[in-house]
Amino acid sequence: MPPGLEDLRLYDTRTRSVRTFEASAPPAVGIYTCGPTVYAPQHLGNMRSQLVPDVLRRVLLAAEYEVTYVTNITDVGHLVSDADEGEDKVEQAAAASGRTATEIAAHWTEQWATDRARLGCLEPDVLPKAASHIDEQIAMVEALERLGHTYVLDDGVYFDVASHPRYAEFAHLDLAELATSGRVERVEEKRHPADFALWKRTAPGVVRQQEWDSPWGRGFPGWHIECSAMATRYLGSRFDIHTGGVDHVRVHHTNEVAQSECALDVHPWVGWWVHTEFLDLGGAKMSKSKGDVLVVDTLVERGLDPLAFRYFTLQAHYRQQQAFTFEAVQAADTALRRLIGHAVAARDAGGAVTDPERVDAYRRRFWAALGDDLNTSQALAVASEASKADDLGPAERWAVLADADRVLGFGLADARSPLPDDSGSDERIDGLVAERESARAARDFATADRVRAELAAEGVEIVDTPTGPTWRHRAD
Ligand code: AMP
Ligand code: ZN
Question: For atom 17 of ligand 1, which residue has the closest CA?
Fold first, then answer.
């Protein structure tokens, strides 16, 4: 156990309080994170909701827990409206592109996995797909039916929220107000607007690419049931931590809790609910349908290291909204390069730690910050301070940073010293960069892209800055 991490305090949405984390069956800890709906690219906001649980998982690993990390792939059942109407997002994307639902799902799953890796996220231990867990979902709906929590309409099987006395508790909902306000979209015959689909029948005359037989007819599972069924399959009927974006509290997680508690007869189902606040993409989030979404590649195209986005994310507390700007990620990129530069110098200086107490003083501050409801900005500040601290020798600095990198995830052990700006050091490359600039000015983007690609192939990266392009040899 690192010094300072003896007490890990973590905010839990269900109890609306910060509580000291206690695993229900130590040293095992199960974490479930709601994953991507794989019909389109995951934007940087989505990725924030992956980065935060990655940090939490790494903190728990550092605290010597045996963590099983599960995040799912939603490849069926998520309808266009988060309620129970409209088309299935994956089917719709397939129809629009002329590819199969399976191809669409595979494509975006791979993109997401690549982006996660580029952001330094550890691979999930289990990555279950909803469409591959239909039996588990049907079994859970059957259990709910047996226990009297469902009713059947023409278009499917619904969960009856009135059958669960604690339905409103999780998100502090006012069900009476919801029933009259019209803020929840209605399927006409539902008994209460908050009732939600567990199984949807394929509409008459429609042929879906993804549909299965069930006791209620041919169709497909509702969106919420997949997470309950897959979490139960891989983590058991109760587990310690469930995470997701804050937008999921009122509907998706409320429904997960209701159906899990009723089907499994448990309460509370999950020990800690950790919700990531939104990355405010402001004007930067472009429409998914246009295909110009702000994604990891957008950063790379601007010469930014994807890990700069990880650094940027760590600079804010996960329960605070964070505003995205390219300038802020550019600043994070600069800070990251500086940190890597110091770390590599300390690492490569070699030598042994002669003053373990000084090392531990920094380590204690670093881990205590993380133990304080994941105060990553404070932890990052300590690491940055240690990287250039006068009271530490190189071996001590490296000891602090190597330890911190277990959570920071910047790959410091293998990092190469970054050369932030190599402009002016090579006439040929300077010439090519200038050629690309003229091509861009003439709107000859084919040439501009070709020059950039040629340079990239030899490990040279062009960085567009507000004062014009610079270039550097890639750090990786
Ligand atoms: P989806 O693919 O739409 O199911 O979303 C995947 C995850 O991203 C969910 O946990 C959402 O809550 C989360 N999410 C969506 N938008 C944002 C955002 N702007 N900032 C942070 N998380 C987000
Ligand atoms: Zn979920």
Answer: 45
Residue 419: pLDDT band (50, 70, 90) is low
- The string of pLDDT tens digits covering residues 373-411 is 999 999 999 999 999 999 999 999 999 999 999 999 999
Q: Across 95-99, 178-182, 345-349, 398-402, which has the greatest mean pLDDT? A: 398-402
Contacts made by residues 294-298, CB under 8 angstroms, sequence distance 24+: 294/43, 294/44, 294/324, 295/41, 295/42, 295/43, 295/44, 295/115, 296/44, 296/47, 296/115, 296/118, 296/119, 298/44
User: 75 C-alpha to center of ligand 1: Å?
Assistant: 15
Rounded average pLDDT over 406-432: 86
pTM for the model stands at: 0.87
- Residue 212 Cβ inside 6 Å of ligand 1? The answer reads no
CATH class in words for 9-276: alpha beta
Per-residue pLDDT tens for 52-111? 999 999 999 999 999 999 999 998 878 777 666 778 888 888 888 888 888 889 999 999
CB atoms within 10 A of CB 364: 15
Look at ligand 1, atom 23, and give the residue with the nearest C-alpha. 46
Is ligand 1 within 6 A of the CB of residue 53? no
Q: How far apart are CA 424 and CA 444, in angstroms?
A: 24
452 CA distance to ligand 2 middle (Å):
40
Name the CATH superfamily for 281-414: Isoleucyl-tRNA Synthetase; Domain 1 (1.10.730.10)
Please tell me if the CB atom of residue 49 comes closer than 6 angstroms to any atom of ligand 1: yes
Atom of ligand 1 nearest to the CA of 48: 21
Looking at the CA of residue 46, tell me the nearest atom of ligand 1: 8
Tell me how far the alpha carbon of residue 13 lies from the centroid of ligand 2, in angstroms.
15
C-alpha angle 91-31-22 in degrees, rounded to nearest 5:
155
For the chain, the structural domain boundaries read: 9-276, 281-414, 427-473
| Atom number of ligand 1 nearest to Cα 280 | 19
State how far the Cα of 348 lies from the Cα of 395, in Å rounded to an integer.
9
